Amino acid sequence: MKLGNQTISSNQLFYLMCTFLLGSSVVFLPGVRAGSNAWLAVLLGALEGFVFLAIYNGLVGQHPGKNLIEINDLVFGPFLGKALSWVYLIYFLYVSAQLLRTFAAFFAIIMTSTPLMVFLITPLFVSSFAVRSGLEVLAKYSQIVFTTVITLFCFDFVLLAKELDLSNLLPFMDIPISKLLLATQSVAALPFGEVVVFLVLTNLIHNPSDTGRFMKKALLFSSIFLLLYTVRTTAVLGTYSTISTYPAFSALRVINIGEVFTRLEIVLAIVFLALGFVKGSLFYYCTVLGVAQLLKMRSYTPLVLPIGALLLNISILLFDEYIFDIIDASMLFPFYSLVFALFLPLLTLIVAKIRKTGNQQGDSANA
Amino acid sequence: MFKVTSGYKIAALFLLILQLLFTTGCWDRVDLNNRAIVVGLGIDSSPYKDKILVSTQIIDPTNVKTPQTAGGGGAESFWIVTSEGRSVFEAIRTTTHVSSRKLFLPHNQVIIFGEDLAQEGLKGHLDMLMRDYEFRETNWILVSEGKAQDILATKTRISSIPAFFIRDLITERIYHSQVAAINIKDLVLRITSKSTAPIASLIHVEDNSGEKVLKLSYTAVFDHDLKMVGRLNDRESRGLLWVLGEVKSGIIVVTNPTGTCNYSLEILAAKRKIVPEFKDGTPTITVRIEASSNLGETSCSEDLDRPEMWKLMASLQNEAIRGEVEAALAKAQELKADVFGFGEAFHQKHPKMWREMESSWQEIFSSLEVDIVVESLVRRPGLILSNVYTEKGD
């Protein structure tokens, strides 16, 4: 049973995944805790991301055209499989609530007297509209946004050329290895580990045999982009990036070309708005779709608003002080997200291999 | 059926357009006529010990001179408001007691600290300048001789707003390259590097043929806690800029070997390379400077037709540049302040050795051996080759 009323092409999957991966990383510099070695953390984190992806591709390859919930059912049986699916869905709901809150907090820094509710409800409302309209709408939107963002990035790069100081990337490897590993893990978890949510969409892709290839391509492309982005921001800001709340945002504040091209950070705020929207909506969409599938509903649309309301409430209840968001994002999330990004999919893959569920030929074609 | 739908569509569209009239802004919007645009900030010590004085230079829109009203004289186009507080933020907010509009800081250009406060230490007064989103990382930081308030209140020519005038003094400093300037971002980099000493430009009021003018001259040197420990004069400041690679232009005057006349050389371009090394275990720095210049003026009547003369000028120039760098180095070593970032060079190239040196870097720096290698060229003569008094040998 296919609940999503639309399917997307592999090419659209590529754009959707790229946009998704850039999502929140564009304002929070990935790997910033590693200081001048942030680029190294991004590189290692991306490699870890490829390991995650290999597991997901293994699962999809073995069960082509099926999504996470169907795979869970097949591998663990109807009862345990469904329980596991519910756990995944709660996690997706939690992540999207967190993302929404982070998103709102970013705008609240500048607009101090506007109630946080405004920044929570407005994007959520638009997001629920997008979710209701379906996956194809999101995919098409991400195609437009992605090309725009890449163009803007090139533009920023040229404007920042004057400020680049590559000696800011030195010294190489002078931080304790534990600090580097923590930074690496946070990069692996924050954009790359979240790719697990795409497993809910695998039954909505036109050509299931291409899925793995295009996901690899998207991961490669976005990790190169993030690497360049990190190198650029570190080269501009140096140690300033370690005290800045939003390093990439600070980097653009430095641009001053003849008192004409200044105050360009607003561009990044808009880019964040556009990219974060895709990421948040995708998590939201997958949660709604998954719940509808588990409840054996004929259509997921009645669930959009109730789950949206739930999402709003969770994001309000998450924390009162911003510091807990930072602690969560930098110290806790990198580890507990591993359960969903690595351990559960790996367990599923191992059990699937042992029980020989699904299509064994597809496995060898995609591995 | 179709008609009803399109009717609804038109009604919906109309409602959507109508709502644009009522949802024009958000809670935080402030209209331009409610903003007091701050362009300069001066921070001084106060007679009360735990307080500081913050002077803000606000553009007074009622007196901004347009071409039509210029020449009328009368009031200034800026307004200086001074208020007191225990922190910069408190003092800025206290200003609202006397200003009918709330201060608006994103257009601030310069932040001037009074000398008294700079000698006490600026450590406690910087945080807001980075934390508040209204300040920009590109704001210039200066230290004034005397009170910062007086600097902001000095009338300026050409540009009627002193803060813009000071900003332009800083951007045009490249034509003499004798003052180092620093913005908030670079100041933070110097503070976070732990070994590099923070610097800032100095500004003072000078009497220039009966008129009070602002003069940007000398560079203030701070220790790690941002206490001003000394200053570099114009020559030493250029010595510093050679090492930082920030010399863009400027005039080098060299005297010919007999000491009777001189050559003024206009710097065209300069590059530098800092190489940190260990020679028999002791850290040494090699600074390589490459510069080129044009002959801008000479009072010598030697025949410049001969290549040797140009080699001579270049070698005199080498010595002059080396002299400037040595002067800066001597002063910095005396102050035990690593203004050049030599420590950071070791940190970047030899991170392992640096860990042992870090704690005693001030001592190491004060007796650091620095090799200065200068290579320079004098390229072009301008519109005449030899001086008009030159007697041709043939």
List the helices and strands and how they pair.
The complex is a heterodimer of chains A (367) and B (394).
Chain A: H1 10-22, H2 38-62, H3 68-108, H4 116-133, H5 135-160, H6 177-192, H7 211-237, H8 240-243, H9 247-253, E1 256-257, E2 261-262, H10 265-294, H11 301-317, H12 322-355, H13 360-366
Antiparallel strand pairs in A: 1-2
Chain B: H1 2-22, E1 35-45, E2 52-59, E3 78-85, H2 88-94, E4 102-104, E5 110-114, H3 115-120, H4 127-131, E6 140-144, H5 148-153, H6 162-171, E7 182-183, H7 184-192, E8 199-208, E9 211-222, E10 228-232, H8 234-244, E11 251-255, E12 262-279, E13 282-298, H9 307-335, H10 342-349, H11 351-357, H12 361-366, E14 369-378
Parallel strand pairs in B: 1-4, 1-5, 5-6, 6-8, 13-14
Antiparallel strand pairs in B: 1-2, 2-3, 6-7, 8-9, 9-10, 11-12, 12-13
Share of helical residues of chain A: over 70%
What is the overall silhouette of chain A?
A: globular
Beta content of chain B: 25-35%
Q: List how many beta strands of chain A DSSP finds.
A: 2
Rg value of chain B: 27 Å
Major pleated sheet of chain A: 2 strands, antiparallel
Assembly status: heterodimer
Unreliable runs of chain A, pLDDT <50, ≥5 residues?
362-367
Overall geometry of chain B:
globular
Summarize the model shown.
The complex is a heterodimer of chains A (367) and B (394). Chain A is mainly alpha-helical.
